[in-house]
Every structure is written in structure tokens, then in C-alpha cells.
Amino acid sequence: MLELVTNFQLNVVVEKETLHEKQIRAVGETEITSVVLKAGSANSDQCNPSIRAGDSLERNVETVPGRMAISGTGASLQQSGNRGRILADPRVYFLGPIDLAASTTSHELGDFIRTDTSHPALQGVNFQTIGLDVVATPGGNSTTRIICTPDLGASTRYQGEGERLSYAFHAVNFAGVPERYLQQALKTTKDVSISILDPVTRAPIEDSFLIIENVAAAAFSYESFKQRHLSGVEDQFILDLYGEYADSDYFLYTKPQETYQNGDRIRILSADLEPVLVSAQAPGYQPLSGRVRVGGNVSSLTLYLSPASESGEPLLGRVEAF
User: Fold this and answer.
1) What value does the mean pLDDT take over residues 251-272?
2) Sheet of 288-292, strand order
3) Distance set, CA 19 to CA 2, 111, 216 (Å)
4) For 69-73, which contacts have Cβ atoms below 8 Å and span 24 or more sequence positions?
5) Which SS3 state, helix, strand or coil, does residue 51 take?
6) What angle do CA 197, 198, 200 make, to 5 degrees?
7) Secondary-structure breakdown of the chain: helix, strand, coil percentages, each rounded to the nearest 5
8) What is the reported pLDDT for 4?
9) What phi-psi label fits residue 97: left (phi over 0), alpha (psi between -120 and 50 degrees) or beta?
10) Contacts from 54-57 at CB under 8 Å and sequence distance 24+?
11) Model pLDDT, residue 56
């Protein structure tokens, strides 16, 4: 029996592609044709000259996993058997499909996203190309020397060393980008501390509280950041990335509250804003309300409440912002 490799091919299928993962299946298929040798021949290399096309031939297919490797930064490869998973690193997003490297034309970031690439929310991103090589070698022995080649019918002997297929795809790396942009945005804000004091002792008043009307218009909340600084971002994955910071310290003290107490702080926009109405109450003190400008260089909002009086003493309540 003489066994010859008569065909080999490497099949690569991309089974799944998302912003964060690509799944690939790679299988090398070796066709091995078995030929019946002349009866009584002592030489295993000797062919049966009387064999005809299709007579005494047996063909089988052996499979082997394609071996995968990636090049470039921003991703890692996990392979098990003939399946591989390419996983994006944190803050890396895959753009577009895998394509044969030979057919991949030169691309720019703007070819894959709708957002203007000059938008400051994208300042510092790294657009990169990641390569994928898949290699497989045939089973059997395609290089064994034989004295003669029998009639293999429609097939011919394969004597190659295997196949290598090269692919490429693109990605964008946002590592450090949101943090830098948020730090820039913080330069337009100021933390304002709140105090509700006795006008005589200047001590904090227990059980006092403050209400600020329309505080959302002045607070540096995630919603105000999104409205002011993410306008023009048209790709949902970029908005989702920045949305991960909505509950971070960048927006500390910015969630509008129904009431504020002594020692609370609120992070507001530094720009000059329209005066807001504030009102404070505490047991044993006269309620106090008034309009105050909290933008600009204001870093402290202090309210002095007049003690409740029945003797006609002058009220000492006032609002100070400085």
C-alpha cells in the first residue's frame, strides 16, 4: 500500500466579530490517497503499472488545526484546537471586519467612525492595525521520494509544505483618553462648600438644610458634561466609554440633591451663571431664602439664619457667596 498526499488546503472562517472580540476557526485538510501495490512486490516504492484511474484507490481526509498568531498591540489571542479568540485589551475597540492582508487597503480612523476625528473627546487615540497569521502543514508525508507515480485519477500528488494565510484588521485605542479629557473639563468647574451658621456664634446650626432650585443647571453633572463636552460624538461605543465615568470621582458632589446640609459640597461650572434661588430652614430659626450667583470664583456658600424671635429683634439672616 502506497499513501500519497494528493491535496491540501487551509480553511479559515471568521465566526464572530464584535467591538471587543473576534472568533476564528482554522482547519487544514489533507487528502491522502492510498494505492494498492503490485502483489508480492518487495519494494514499497514500486507502483503497480497496471492500475487504472479510479481502480484500487482509496481517499481519506485528515484534519489539523491551523496555528494562529497575531502581531501588533492592543489584543491577545487564545486558541483551543482549531478555534481562536482574539480579545481586545481594555479601552481598545475593534473596527471593521478581518480581511486578507493582501487586499486590505490603507485606512484611516475616519473610515470606521461617524464622529469627526478632530473632536476633543478623541484627542490622543491610537489608530492601529493588528495582523493575524494562520499556518497549517499537511498530514501524511508529502515529501517522501517514490520511484514512480501511479495513476491517481483526477488528483495529482501534493508536495508542498503547507499554507500560510495573512489577515489584518483595525482597532482604536482609547487608553488614557477619557481621563485626560475629563481632567480638562474639570478645569471649568469649582467645588463650592455649603455652610448654614448661627449669625451670632457663627457655629453650624444642627438639623438645618438647604434647598437650591434648579441646581442641575449649575452642577457639573455627567449629564451637563455630556451636553457640553460630548456634543458631536455620534458613535455609541464612544458615548458608552465616557458613560462608564458617570459615577466616578470626576462627578463627585454633582448629583442634584433635594436638600443639602452643613459641610456638603457641590461641584459647579465656573462660568458666570444666572443667580439661583436658595432657601434654608432649621428648628428654632427663621427660614431664609434669596438669590445668589454661584458661578465665577465662588467657592463658598454661607447662609446665616436668624433665631426665631417674638420680641421684635432685628433679623440677622443673610446669604453670602464668596
Assistant:
1) 81
2) 209-212, 276-281, 288-292
3) 50, 15, 34
4) 69/132, 69/133, 69/135, 70/130, 70/131, 70/132, 70/133, 71/130, 71/131, 71/132, 71/133, 72/128, 72/129, 72/130, 72/131, 73/128, 73/130, 73/173
5) coil
6) 135
7) 15, 40, 45
8) 78
9) beta
10) 54/153, 57/33, 57/152, 57/153
11) 55
- The per-residue DSSP string of 274-300 comes to --EEEEEE-TTB--EEEEE--STT--E
**Strand 67-71 relative to strand 2-17, pairing:** unpaired
- Rounded Cα distance between 292 and 302, Å, is 10
pLDDT at 251 over 70: yes
Q: Residue 138 in contact with residue 162, Cβ under 8 Å?
A: yes
Output the pLDDT for position 43.
Answer: 47
pLDDT at 40: 47
Q: What is the CA radius of gyration of the chain?
A: 37
Distance CA 185, CA 177 (A): 13
> What DSSP character marks residue 178?
H
Cα–Cα dist 43/47, whole Å: 9
67-71: strand order across its sheet: 67-71, 126-136, 163-173, 92-100
| Burial state string for 51-65 with b = 16 or more CB within 10 A and e = fewer than 16 | beeeeebeeeeeebb
Q: Beta-carbon neighbour count of residue 267 at 10 Å?
A: 19
DSSP code of 60? E
Contact 205, 174 (CB under 8 A): no
Placement of cell 494505492 in the chain: 35
pLDDT of 132-160, one tens digit each?
Answer: 999 998 876 656 666 566 666 666 777 77
Is residue 260 within 8 Å of 266, Cβ to Cβ? yes
> Which residues share a beta bridge with 171?
94, 128
Helices (H), the chain: 177-186, 222-229, 236-243
CB 190 within 8 A of CB 299: yes
